[in-house]
Fold these 4 entries.
Entry 1:
Amino acid sequence: MKRKVLRMKTLYGQLNEILKKFIIERFGENRWETIAKLKDIKETFIAEDKYDDTISKNIIEAATKELDLQRDPFLEMCGAFMFQYLRRYGYEELIRNLANNVLEFLQNLDFVQSYLKEDYQDFVMPHFRCDDDSVSDRMILHYFSYRPGYQRIVMGRDVIASPTFQY
């Protein structure tokens, strides 16, 4: 039996906003402007507004070309930046209260998605689950999303998140 997969065409602008901020902070405003011109991107992104998902994909495609980076490492850097960005802009307390260690952080990611769902009600959130036999120094995280191709962002976020919980 073939499984039907729902494809989301319009998504909230948080990813686009973070991609843009990452490129500007890491590589400079000039590089962002070149990337935006490559794909005719004129928007100023607002996290709570909806955008076609092809914009995110176009930003990633143009950025990897312009910055001469492979897609996977670029997305991992974006994931690391996303975690740092969220900490800087009001989510530090939530992250700290979420867990005492990285395993608890990963096990509680669905809680964060539920929290964000209040602000982004139409968004189909990804789901996260750790295997039952995961322990603090060995764990397997399962990531389920209707948006294919973004798992490297999750990997980058989780790698940068780990030291946060080492006291």
Entry 2:
Amino acid sequence: MGATAPRRQAPQETEERTVDRAGRTRRILVGEIGRPHGVRGLVKLRSFTADPAAIATYGPLTDEAGTRRFALTLLPNGVARVEGVADRDAAQRLTGTRLFVDRDRLPPAEEEEYYLADLIGLRAETEAGESLGQVRDVEEHGAGAFLVLDGPPGHGKERLLPFTRACVPVVDIAGGRVVVALPDEVEVPPRPGEEEAA
């Protein structure tokens, strides 16, 4: 990989999570129920897993609150049957429901691959060991993942860093840390008229 190549992420991505470094179960967003398909309770399904069919292999999924469970049967063309949903009205009520799976039900990541949820809460430090704070979030904007760092206590500085090998040369999940090679900061001066608007 080149110096600016993105880090490899585990196969199931586009994650959102309930994070707890204290050992409670974390859940990862793996899909979303779309609009109804036909009149017999079928729905369109958006799968966020690398293999769209994998979403049905994790067992029952839950909603965002973790209170409702959904067992899915995949059908061709991105359509799914949700157990217990037999008509269009019931399917319509599920539109937009985001589907989560417990992190421990996902397959282990391969070497040099990471589930983005596993980075949340890791200490961030420079190559010299200086604390940069903690990874608060990982954002995916289409061009690659970015780590959101909360600065160390008392500094209150938030940083947004590209999750590339050049910027994050070491990811030590077991050690609870990432090593960051800070890029040069780029400050973009306001254009004429922008200062007054702010």
Entry 3:
Amino acid sequence: MENQPPPPTYVSMVDPFLVEALQNPRHRLTILRMELDVQNFLKNSDIHQFEFPHFPTSYLRLAAHRVAQHYGLQTMVQDNVVDGQGIRILVIKNPESKVPAVCLSDVPAKDSENDHLNQIKFVIRPRPKASSNDDNGLGLKRSPVRTVEERKEEYDRARARIFSSPNSSDSEDALAPFEVADSVHDVCSVI
């Protein structure tokens, strides 16, 4: 039986819901923003009530309650049907409100398979440089700058090589089986 390392200290000090939410890349940033808002609220002794911004899902509203409770704050819900803002979450300071021993930002993000791929380093080796007297097998020397005529000639030779029949190397003979129709009537009569 293998000895497993003990669970991290934050596991017993942070709500499991918040740990799971923080390990989800989709929600981590939002939870950490909530925590930052709560920390700024606690630092300001002049303000005794704070309102979270509107959260579109019940999951994020639950997370806002849990973040406030992690800091020992009291939460209240106000349903504002009149002004159309929906549900608002108010946070109120208590005498026992304080910054906890383990902040939510201390909870590490869960490693995903993509993170492991991002850690792998790929080395791209440069292609060996051809010497100046090498040619590409067609009798042409490749230069980095070619004229349009040189490119067209190379294209024509490649086309002739691709479409040539085994017993003929001339490009006109290779295209002989394909006759060009003179009109639409000729094309339709072939079909």
Entry 4:
Amino acid sequence: MELAANMKGDLVGNQQISNSDMAFVQQVAAGDTNLDAGTIRKLVDIREKQLKGNVENYNSRVDAIYPDSPENKANRSFLGGIAVPENPYADKETTGSVETKTGRVPSAAVVDGWEYFIGADGKKYKRRAGSR
């Protein structure tokens, strides 16, 4: 799989990635593992760990070069520390949506009080949950 093949080089030397994660990515890249929902989910989790590691590494470099002091305020505001975004879907319960033959979605996905759905015209929409 192309994603796994591209990930291999990025993962080398990243402290957040375990040897077992690296071995898993290599198996997927070589085509030794079936691509199912669990495999893709694990690849995305490994990629997320790698990207968070990149952000933490950048922040530690900025802290080492420009410690948080009044003299470095201008440099730190430009280079800044990057906040690692939290997963907005973690620990959220969503309802599934399945398209029927008519193209209508019987139940919209609900996240943080918003319904996400596909209209009869095929466009994607969002509205406050319960505001039909």
